[in-house]
Amino acid sequence: MTGSVESFKRLYGVKPNVDLARKFLSDAQIATPVLINLQYNPDHYGGNSSEEYAAVKGQLEASGLFRVDLQSTEWVAYQERRSSDSYPVYQFGWFPDFPDPDNYLTPFFMPDNMLVNHFQNDTITRLITAEVTEPDSAKRLRIIGQIQELMARDYISTLPLLTGKQIAVSVKNVDGIKLGPSFKFQFTPLKKTGGTA
């Protein structure tokens, strides 16, 4: 997506760095293994959530630095408890309403945000307000990049663990396959344009 900056990968690397994590925890005088109570939802985000979060647990515990208490809750109770601070660390899936990078900023990082995670920062609020009102697209993208950088470096109120893609596949001689502006498949007439399928 235009405006997306992979600040977490740039700042912390693409692969886990156990030595750096051990040093960070030691410097902060945090005893290991650190207990993480991790909550996920098994029925709202697709059938793979259990396997995905078992993999997250396995990766964290393989480092020897963490012990993960992995728990799941059905969606209705999950939403209630998540919003009332019952889960210190939890899964929250997000699919944007429209393809704009602000869809990953305003809902999460403005005061009284939809996550109800108590994140509030005057600098971030000022920058988000600036980017949503900036008419110059190049300036706006620079501000969006700055917000992503600050969130990854200084605040980390959310941590992107898993990402997915939407892909439409066809043979060369099929026309009319489109993903619309809301990332939804457009069921327009498909046409065979010649050749064999």
UniProtKB/TrEMBL annotation:
Protein name (database record): Bacterial extracellular solute-binding s, 5 Middle family protein
List the lineage, top down.
Bacteria, Bacillati, Actinomycetota, Actinomycetes, Mycobacteriales
- Residue stretches making up the Solute-binding protein family domain: 16-113
A Pfam family annotated for this UniProt entry: SBP_bac_5
- List the InterPro entries hit by this protein, alphabetically: SBP_5_dom
- On the tree of life, the source organism's domain of life is Bacteria
